[in-house]
Amino acid sequence: LIVGVPRETFAGEKRVATVPEVVEKLIKLGFRVAVESGAGVQANLDDDAYRAAGAEIVDSTAQLWNQADIVFKVRGPNDEEVGLLREGGTLVSFIWPAQNPDLMQKLAAKKATVLAIDALPRQLSRAQKMDALTSQAGVAGYRAVVEAANAFGRFFNGQITAAGKVPPAKVFIAGAGVAGLAAIGTAANLGAIVRANDTRAEVADQVKSLGGEFVKVDYEEDGSGGGGYAKVMSEGFQQAQREMYAQQAREVDIIITTALIPGKPAPKLITADMVKSMKPGSVIVDMAAEQGGNCELTVPGEAVVRHGVTIVGYTDLVSRLARQSSTLYATNLFRLTEELCKTKDGQINVNFEDDAIRGLTVIKEGEITWPAPAPKIP
Ligand code: NAD
């Protein structure tokens, strides 16, 4: 079969769904790989690099879609791309079926088979190698710290130099899921003093193992809402949490917020008053900007200065590290392809007996199969 990789068309999207290292592996599994000319340019991957790895470079978008048996994409397709998808073709990309019912109907009408990488049952340990939400959140968490360091006027690490003593920067991370943990590790590696808070008490040990201090809210309530995700907290907890965050805002130089609750707007954790209380030159990176922001003063997509504090609300952190995020995403898709092609003969079998495959198959040959029944945890 032919795996086709089109150029991403979503504004500002710099990732590409495969990279030359992975092209070679797909060919070893028995597939042919066709890549649209220029697909990797924004991730510093030119056509020659793909060609050297054995890919066929296709100039025409329509031809690429038409010849592909399986399309690998990052972003879900727009209307034009759905039109280009071959009748009965297979698509692997982010889809977010709950948020995109129209797209689901249009893909079903194409008799497509659609594997939504965001619908992977993440709780299966076997699925971790295919978990693109985790790989991309890790990149975003790293990049958030890089953005913070870039906007901050001092070192992260403490130094004793002939020119004087420099104190280490203090960093507070709100939300210690995948992105938050990556940010903790990165900031600690740069030498900052790192503190973090999450409503799920279970993450405290992970925070410590990455070199951070877990700061607890003085209120007895756990935030686990099932599946490793958070729930909306009680008024009492939120009040106690605001008091603790207000104190951190006065003390630290940098705040990175990552708090999300599935299906809800991002919780507002950093108020305008807290921003006002921060030292001039402090930085906030709001990784929840796209979901409404954890900080009241965030402007999604922009970096703004309010009360002397730089508030970074970029919504394209993964695209700002496109070579890295593309490589990890491509590897996640390769691991998935291995599961689909146990026979190593360039054919795929969308096997519904396999919990991981069942979970991410949201449409099979035109029939909507989402949501999948809960997987049996081994
Ligand atoms: P996410 O992006 O939905 O949430 C980010 C973090 O924000 C979470 O840790 C959440 O608890 C926290 N949060 C929510 N509201 C908050 C508030 N008011 N104050 C402070 N923090 C708040 O989650 P994610 O990072 O995609 O994943 C969350 C968890 O899912 C992981 O940490 C992990 O436990 C689980 N997970 C498990 C596996 C696996 O089992 N293999 C794989 C991936 C993720």
From TrEMBL:
This protein's UniProt keywords: Cell inner membrane, Cell membrane, Membrane, NAD, NADP, Nucleotide-binding, Translocase, Transmembrane, Transmembrane helix
Superkingdom: Bacteria
Name the UniProt record assigns to this protein: NAD(P) transhydrogenase subunit alpha
Keyword Calcium: no
Family: Belongs to the AlaDH/PNT family.
Locations listed in the record: Cell inner membrane
Boundaries of the shown chain within the full protein: 3 to 380 of 529
Organism annotation: Viridibacterium curvum
EC number, as in UniProt: 7.1.1.1
Enzyme class: translocase
Ranges of residues in domain Alanine dehydrogenase/pyridine nucleotide transhydrogenase N-terminal: 4-140
Catalytic activity: NAD(+) + NADPH + H(+)(in) = NADH + NADP(+) + H(+)(out)
Function according to Swiss-Prot or TrEMBL: The transhydrogenation between NADH and NADP is coupled to respiration and ATP hydrolysis and functions as a proton pump across the membrane.
Tagged with keyword NAD: yes
Membrane topology per record: Multi-pass membrane protein
Subcellular location, principal: membrane
Residue span, Alanine dehydrogenase/pyridine nucleotide transhydrogenase NAD(H)-binding domain: 149-313
